[in-house]
Amino acid sequence: MTVIVAGKVYVDPAERDRYVEGHQVIVEKARAHPGCLDVVIAADTLEPGRVNIFEYWESEEVLNAWRAISPRPTYSAEIRDGEVFKHRVSYSGPPFD
Question: Could you tell me the pTM of the whole model?
Answer without folding.
Answer: 0.92
